[in-house]
Design a protein that fits this description.
It contains 14 helices and 22 strands. The chain is α/β, with parallel strands linked by helices. It folds into two domains: 6-266 and 446-517, FAD/NAD(P)-binding domain (3-Layer(bba) Sandwich); 293-346 and 363-435, Flavocytochrome C3, Chain A, domain 1, CATH 3.90.700.10. Strands 1, 2, 9, 10, 11, 12, 21 and 22 form an eight-stranded mixed beta sheet that branches. Strand 11 (193-199) and strand 12 form a beta hairpin.
Length: 524
């Protein structure tokens, strides 16, 4: 498309946050909205494309959710156990998982607007579903949802971006690909901006009444990862887009005086297929290289030692931090291991033969031999670790014969008893691992997004100046660039919700600011 010379609102970034912002701006009165991204069109979607499309929202239970999902029959609804997840529940999870460090006003704004924002998206054609495959287990004939998260988009991140593209097209949002933001200069005569971009390597300048920055973090930049996340992070695999390199974060701080806030040494990182491309996500596989079945089994490093409590909490509250734990292991590798008791409970999209190398064996010794061919350095320690784990599991079961295994709750089946305790417990879902055939997969760390960002007003998503503490006129921020929400970890699904909530706020406020500017100009 030909780049316009002047627009009301420019949105930088084509992920969930950018699309939500563009849609909101167009619906709230902006007469011309332009969305730009430095990626080519075939890389549309940012990191959102590579997600499972999961959103965490406060809700009133099944009856509150049913009107916005498209995959529940009346017969299924009668079998579903889905308790309300209140704003207080959401806040408690944020406080607990983020160690009480999440900005309280930012967190409050996220939570209080979560339900209405997702219903707004649904009304605009984003197709939501109950996440049966990721967030529910069938136990005793009931479909039990767990972990405070229950909805996802149809076809995950791929479907989400497809639906967003259709939505912004209906509202005449213009899009320019291979267009990177390189500079912003405030006009001297109003609150608008001179916007410098690079379109296919050619410098162009246009004007905008308001600018929304939703260009992601620095997770695809190995130098910045090493600088801010720490030594070794340049070796982490990139789970999503290769285009989130921190350029716009740097521009906001250096050219606009933004205040850097939040957990700049923290990130969302997961157990990731060790055989994946290290530098970019796979647009066909999308989220399927994630390997999140560890609560059902064990994780051992190449020296044959466990290094995390696989059952410390429901997966939603641990998967975003266990990538870091894997990166800290020798050679940045680990093996996830199951026996026949639980291997059938693994999600097929992550663990089917077409998607991952499945290391199978009839005995534990044979499994150790095969893992040794793929990097395991100490077979004897591997076998001893599993045997000691099994002894601890059986000791706990002898003392607690009535405790029942239930993957949908923290069931209390552990390795700790009065007669046997492991130095590193498995706190829940601890079943013996001694019934062949056995299965293992090799994993490493996949980095998803970084937590450090810039300070925004929690109610308007307007950028806050670092020196004055005042809002920067007509500049708004959404998505991964918002700093102060997540520390060390996050409650699963809250990232996409944050992008949508603050994207919607940014779009609305940007449209209002431009409308106000037009009104003033018309009176001059």
């Amino acid at each position: 498309m030909a780049l316009p010379k002047q627009v009301d609102v420019i949105v930088v970034g084509s992920g969930n946050a950018g699309f939500a912002a563009a849609l909101s701006a167009a619906q709230n009165g902006a007469e011309s909205v332009l969305l730009i991204d430095k990626c080519p069109e075939n890389w549309v979607g940012g990191n959102s494309y590579f997600t499972a499309g999961a959103y965490r929202i406060a809700h009133g239970g099944l009856q509150d959710i049913l009107p916005i999902v498209n995959n529940v029959s009346p017969e299924q609804a009668d079998k579903i156990d889905l308790a309300p997840y209140t704003e207080k529940d959401f806040q408690n999870d944020m406080d607990r998982v983020c160690m009480g460090r999440s900005d309280p006003e930012l967190s409050k704004s996220l939570i209080q607007n979560s339900n209405a924002t997702i219903k707004w998206l649904a009304a605009n054609g984003i197709r939501f579903q109950l996440s049966f495959n990721r967030q529910a287990y069938e136990v005793d004939g009931r479909i039990k949802f767990w972990g405070g998260m229950c909805i996802k988009t149809e076809d995950g991140g791929k479907g989400l971006i497809q639906d967003y593209l259709a939505a912004i097209k209906k509202h005449n949002v213009q899009v320019s690909w291979s267009t990177g933001l390189t500079g912003l200069k405030k006009h001297s005569f109003n609150d608008g901006y001179e916007v410098e971009v690079s379109l296919n390597g050619v410098k162009r300048t246009l004007t905008a009444g308001a600018v929304i920055l939703a260009a992601g973090g620095f997770e695809s930049n190995p130098q910045m990862r090493s600088q801010f996340l720490g030594p070794g992070w340049d070796l982490a695999m990139v789970r999503g887009t290769p285009y989130n390199t921190g350029d716009v974060l740097g521009l906001a701080i250096q050219q606009l005086g933004a205040q850097a806030v939040g957990n700049w040494s923290g990130c969302h990182s997961v157990a990731w297929d060790a055989n994946a491309d290290p530098n970019t996500g796979d647009r066909e596989a999308s989220n399927e290289y994630t390997k999140s079945g560890y609560p059902l089994g064990l994780m051992l490093n190449v020296d044959g030692a466990r290094f995390v409590d696989e059952g410390v909490d429901l997966r939603n509250y641990t998967y975003a931090k266990f990538g870091r734990a894997i990166l800290q292991q020798p050679e940045h590798l680990a093996f996830q291991v199951w026996d026949s008791r639980t291997s059938g409970w693994l999600r097929s999209e992550e663990y089917r033969e077409e998607r991952v190398e499945r290391i199978t064996a009839n005995t534990l010794e044979e499994l150790a031999d095969k893992c040794a061919e793929r990097g395991l350095r100490n077979k004897a320690a591997f076998i001893d670790t599993v045997h000691e784990y099994n002894e601890a599991v059986y000791a706990h079961r002898r003392e607690n014969p009535n405790v029942k295994w239930d993957p949908a709750i923290r069931d209390g089946l552990s390795t700790q008893s009065s007669t046997k305790k492991l130095a590193l417990a498995k706190s829940n879902w601890a079943l013996p691992l001694d019934k062949g055939p056995y299965l293992a997969v090799k994993v490493t760390c996949g980095v998803t997004f970084t937590f450090g960002g810039v300070k925004v007003d929690p109610q308007t998503a307007q950028l806050v100046h670092g020196s004055t503490g005042s809002p920067v006129p007509n500049i708004y921020v959404a998505g991964e660039m918002v700093g102060g929400l997540f520390y060390s970890n996050y409650p699963g699904g809250s990232g996409l919700t944050s992008g949508a909530v603050f994207g919607a706020k940014a779009g609305k406020e940007a449209a209002k600011s431009v409308a106000g500017g037009r009104s003033i100009s018309s009176r001059l």
